[in-house]
């Protein structure tokens, strides 16, 4: 929390990178996310809400006025606030796949029929059930956050089931295939392939490794906690062809 700017009957406040607004009506506090990193956007929304209150047009942030897209926005705000490393991936998933499918859908109408329609739409776009599950988890999280806001944007979160995934990994890279692939890769990718083939490390982890973490004397590569998916530091042994290609 930081950078609060007060107004007569409300305020704007930065939470992480996103600006939120707070205002009062009849002694009751309301908080909203502007879903924007621009303070001016938050100030504009606050002025609009204060105008609605002054004119008697404000009816609160009732669920019937909330769209599923608003809840998805809460998820992105939370990712930014928590500093999740997967923010860029989730932002891309939301922008490319989720929002186009649920842009105008109201929270009160999002139930079993809408979930089945979403799944059918994404399957028709050749998305795997595993991918659809990742997208539904974002929507599910949005409903959870919506129910936790003050006042709540959601009164009765729908049940969003997970699809059965058939994502068992099949096949392994045989040594002959490995050497053939290594021969065809550009030079700057060869060391990554060799290390990945030997230790089975995630590509995302390997891309973050710096030379200071490669210990040739100790024959190991040290991964820091913030580089691993489990956020636990560990070491990778240097053996086989790894040393030659790293050098």
Description:
- The chain is an alpha+beta fold and 247 residues long.
- The chain has helices at residues 39-55, 68-82, 87-102, 112-124, 129-148, 175-184, 187-199, 203-206, 242-246; strands at 2-6, 10-15, 18-25, 28-33, 214-215, 220-223, 234-237.
- The protein has three domains: 2-60, no CATH class; 65-148; 175-246, no CATH class.
- Helices cover 46% and strands 14% of the residues.
- Helix 2 (68-82) packs antiparallel against helix 3 and helix 2 packs across helix 5 (129-148).
- The longest helix is centred in the middle third of the chain and has 20 residues, at 129-148.
- The protein starts with a strand and ends with a helix.
- The model has no long low-confidence stretch (mean pLDDT 85).
Write the element-wise H/E pattern from the N-terminal end onward: EEEEHHHHHHHHEEEH
Count of the domains: 3
- Please indicate the percent range of residues in DSSP E strands (runs of 2 or more): 5-15%
Tally of alpha and pi helices: 9
Please tell me the overall pLDDT: 85
Overall structural class, as computed from helix and strand content, comes to alpha+beta
What's the number of extended β-strand segments?
Answer: 7
Rg, nearest Å: 24 Å
| Range of helix content | 40-55%
Give the oligomer, counting copies of the same chain as homo and different chains as hetero.
single chain
Sheet with the most strands, sense and barrel status: 4 strands, antiparallel
| End-to-end Cα distance | 46 Å
Instruction: Catalogue the unreliable spans.
Output: none
Strand adjacency order, main sheet = 1-2-3-4
Task: Please state the overall shape, judged from the principal axes of the Cα atoms.
Answer: elongated
